Amino acid sequence: xxxxxxxxxxxxxxxxxxxxxxxxxxxxxxxxxxxxxxxxxxxxxxxxxxxxxxxxxxxxxxxxxxxxxxxxxxxxxxxxxxxxxxxxxxxxxxxxxxxxxxxxxxxxxxxxxxxxxxxxxxxxxxxxxxxxxxxxxxxxxxxxxxxxxxxxxxxxxxxxxxxxxxxxxxxxxxxxxxxxxxxxxxxxxxxxxxxxxxxxxxxxxxxxxxxxxxxxx
Length: 217
Prior knowledge:
Blueprint: E1 2-5, E2 8-11, H1 20-26, H2 34-37, E3 45-49, H3 55-62, E4 66-70, H4 77-86, E5 93-96, E6 99-100, E7 105-110, E8 120-123, E9 132-135, E10 146-149, H5 155-160, H6 163-169, E11 172-176, H7 179-184, H8 189-198, E12 201-205, E13 210-215
Parallel strand pairs: 3-4, 3-10, 4-5, 6-9, 10-11
Antiparallel strand pairs: 1-2, 7-8, 7-9, 11-13, 12-13
């Protein structure tokens, strides 16, 4: 199924059927995020963690921004690459087929939902391997103005693996918090709030599960 949106066309995964109408109507997974997406200027760099099929990466690329798009789910990684190529965004979007975490580790999908994008990926037991290898954001030398994190409960782990990048560049952060999924990764709302305070960020709530973080210095 092809989604035709104001800024590009996207082939989607069959498992995204429950969100088909919402995306076709608003152009985004979450329309509330658009004002924060629009703060990135042409030529600036964004890291899109949990890029899925590339809606946000494509939106930024269509506006002349540069994007590092991180996605490793087997259901979406090929669609992401194809959508970037077909829309002519390949020169602006660097595809990273890896999950990001607080440390290098193997991850296994924890299947709870028919919509695959709703599932979280958890570290496997020590000494075993899983189907997907996760890396840290700090393993790359990047200077983003924004890090968007939608990692299905692993969002704080992504930030913990980006300490050097965050301390050097103080990017804005667009982050999601889903309590049941975060709990599976060992984190609570208090852990997120503590990280925000410790790193001197100001939180602007976007809706019930997203927040925009800006460094206060």
